[in-house]
Amino acid sequence: MATTKAPAGSSHRWAVLLFIGLAQLMIILDATVVNIALPSLQRDLGISDGDRQWVITAYTLAFGSLLLLGGRIADYTGRKRAFLIALLGFTGASALGGAANGFETLLIARALQGGFGALLGPAALSLLTVTFSEPKERAKAFGIWGGIAAAGGALGLLVGGALTEYLDWRWCLYVNIPIALVAAIGGQAVLTESRRPGGTRFDIPGVLLVTTGLVAIVYAAGRAEADGFDSAPVIGLLAAGAVLLAAFGYVESRVAQPLLPLRVIADRTRGGAYLAVGVVVIGMFGAFLFMTYYMQVVKGYSPVKTGAAFLPMTAAVLLAAGGLTARLLPRVPPRALIVPGMLISAGGMLWLLTLEPGTGYAGGVLVAQVLCGFGAGMIMPVALNYATHGVAEGDSGVASATVNTAQQVGASIGIAVLNTIAAAATADHLASHGATPEIAGQAAVEGFATAGAWAAGIILLGALVVAFVMNTPRPEARPVPDGAEVPEPLLARS
């Protein structure tokens, strides 16, 4: 196993965090910044209601299905190189999308953004992993990183609302260009190259199986929003995806250089971290979706007012991640933070049951936001930290890709499932009470509340599993001597 020299000074490490944090912020922003702009770009480009979802799905489809390949490319070709190439590619894709004069061009640009994001995300997280190895500094770094991951979605709604209302929807794509260029210039200056030792032979069968399997599942989730989960195409795609992923697992246990070594996901702590991330994003993105529609459609908020209304969620995430989790992470077992965080997030989704069309902001969505945000701020830094727990440096890229895959696929499938549940509950309410304007608002709220209850149930079930699976004790504070070789993150082994 190759070794990596500890960076020379603390200031150097925090400069690394600044620039890779900018890249991570751009990825997270892009998952939600286009959402509020969707009605405007739909009118501008003449996109039908049936096709508008693909503006979002083209990004998540490419991102979610290519993450494992992106992680392995970063491991073999060099994480710094992969990071810089992905940033430049993301810049070009964003410029193409912003200048798009038709639906097809926009879809191509969004798919390219997702593809380069699938290379950028694992490279960034693995660079963070090999840069911060001392437990206390690592806890602070992952506290900041987790705050970015959890708060970036809410910030994306605010930025998207402001850019759409005061400039143009195209700036929701153009905004990536300066962020990416600053991250690339800074990354070139401060990042140190690291890569997996050995040859660059790729597991081609594994690549084909996992990519097509994830594409089938994410595509099915996108189709389910329009066709329903009981439709033949959706059931067929889900079944095909499950078979392909099962075949992928079999192949990975047989090949000499697997795309995803099963040892990466077999560890109970890492497996629990992947599960926690996948489950919590269901609640976070469900909250973004339902609260956005509640505020804009039911309450009549403008895009900017809607974005600003999400600021308390961002503040709650940052307070929990930076003020609480970063201090406790070096001292307590991971599940001591993750499980309570999941319970708090579930409480936030259950609060949607209290909403009515006339509910005030302070007693309604504000409470749900604060609970969801605070819970996510307790979960994400810990889960992202332990997602690479005890993994060999040569596998840090694919371990990072796995947690990103859990996040992206969890969000895609979770939103599709919850949106289908909400739509069905709304339709049932309208069928039994009539379709007057007053009833329509109540029916929409009924759908949001029903989906929120289901999301809370999923999160609570996930909390039970994580509590049972994760068995890692509190981290051991083992200082790194000056000039010492750092073979892997110095955290207690399970």
The helix tally amounts to 17
CATH fold assignment of the largest domain: Growth Hormone, Chain: A
* Protein structure class: mainly alpha
Total DSSP E strands: 2
Radius of gyration: 22 Å
Strand order of the largest sheet: 1-2
CATH class of the largest domain: Mainly Alpha
Q: What's the arrangement of secondary structure elements?
A:
Elements: E1 4-5, H1 10-45, H2 54-77, H3 79-98, H4 103-131, H5 135-166, H6 171-174, H7 176-190, H8 204-227, H9 232-252, H10 262-266, H11 268-298, H12 303-309, H13 311-328, H14 335-350, H15 365-386, H16 396-433, H17 437-469, E2 485-486
Antiparallel strand pairs: 1-2
Helix pairs in contact: 1-2, 1-4, 1-5, 1-7, 2-3, 2-4, 2-8, 2-16, 3-4, 3-7, 4-16, 5-12, 5-13, 5-15, 8-9, 8-16, 11-14, 11-15, 11-16, 11-17, 13-15, 14-15, 14-17, 16-17
Organism: Actinomadura livida
Pfam family, one: MFS_1
Keywords: Cell membrane, Membrane, Transmembrane, Transmembrane helix, Transport
Descriptive key words:
2 domains; Growth Hormone, Chain: A; 494 residues; 76% helix; 2 strands; globular; two-stranded antiparallel ribbon
Report on the structure:
- This protein is mainly alpha-helical and 494 residues long.
- The protein is built from 17 helices and two strands.
- Strands 1-2 form a two-stranded antiparallel ribbon.
- α8 runs antiparallel to α9 (232-252), α14 (335-350) runs antiparallel to α17 (437-469) and α16 (396-433) packs antiparallel against α17.
- The longest helix has 38 residues, at 396-433.
- The protein is globular, with a radius of gyration of 22 Å.
- Residues 1-9 and 477-494 have low confidence and may be disordered.
